[in-house]
Write a structure and sequence with these properties.
The chain is an alpha+beta fold. The chain is 37% helix and 17% strand. The chain has helices at 7-16, 67-86, 148-177, 181-187, 228-240, 281-292, 310-314, 319-331, 364-383, 408-441, and strands at 24-34, 40-45, 54-56, 102-107, 189-198, 204-213, 246-248, 257-259, 265-271, 279-280, 354-356, 393-404. It comes from Streptomyces griseoviridis.
Amino acid sequence: MASAPDYHRWEDQIRRTGGCADPIHLTGWTTHKDKTTGATLHHYSTASEPGGRLRLACGNRRASRCPACARTYAGDTYHLIRAGLAGDDRRDIPATVRDHPRVFATLTAPSFGPVHNRPDSGTCRCGTVHTPDAPELGTALDPTTYDYAGAVLFNNHAGQLWQRFTNRLRREIAARAGLTQRELKEAARLSYGKVAEFQKRGAIHFHAIIRIDGPDGPDSAPPSWATVRLLDDAIRAAAAHSYTSVSVPAVDDQPVRTFRWGRQLDVRPVKAFGDGSDLIEQAVASYVAKYATKAAENTGTLDRRIGELAELDRHSVPDHTRRLITACRNLDPLYPDRRLWAWAHMLGFRGHFSSKSRRYSTTLGALRQARADFRAEQERVALGIDEQAPDTVLVLADWQYGGHGHTPGESVLAATIARDLQLNRETAREALREQLVDEREW
């Protein structure tokens, strides 16, 4: 492969994808013409490319499927979250958003039975002091009494539980401000950005930045009564309120279940600059971005849909996770509208891993469009048509899907390219960090 005459062009394509592990292949052509004269400004065809194909990044957010594209997704998520914390002039989010009350809240799942853990005392209920990487962490102390059905049904309804929580939170804020729901809409707006994370026991929980804005969003000042203390108190009340629950009816041998958030609730203020004890904007944005590219892989499950239970044997899925997946299969006929078997690889969870309210900050689509526009302008310069007004250029194209992925040999080379690109990024980032430190000292 590396000795092939077109290797350098293939390498250039893979570098342009960022070292994508599963690139999309396209075949076809594109032509740029001058609308006025009809002259051809540039013509491109994949006929001259390696294998007659153009390779594009797959864009998968999962780090387990494509680390290169997941890094891009994590970077976009970082900027999206941080823009809602520190502002971003390029996207019309003022820096004054830093002065709005905002907290980082973690809502957890309830208990479905005792599991192996590492408590503050150091000794697990099984009598062992587990190491941080012990494989039994998060698994049931007694699998025969653990509520596997309840665990996957909670995951499956977690999105609805979050929706009820946010609805109740608005009511709690209004009550503490002495306002009605309608008056609250005219005085303030609740904004949030959240990410889901799987605990080792296979239960989902949410991390969320929650913020109070003025009525027009981040570019309007919140009312004087809006404080971090009021927001903290309202979150705790909303999470504990009876309204914030989801009931699942009894079916066959399954009892009626009412799901609420777990007793472990963490609410911490977010500071622009920390004192060592406070959460700071960069740390929160990095934390959310990290989990935006993950799913349930830390429990040992598969990162794709499961066709049959026999696949679990081929991939050595741990017993605790296997029981959760089996519970999804067994419950699927009882709750057909919940599609538990289709989401068994996610242990029943079927919601978005990262989401935000409409006015929290910018959008992933806007960030991707900005990147696409930048690359398009680079391409215009490279083609020598940058002096042409965009509305005077006619673009004709014909593209067809030609497959995806790499051959085994290409996969090894692509992984090496991806590592080189990542090392270059880390080196550049470290150099910039050292430069900033030197400037501060100066």
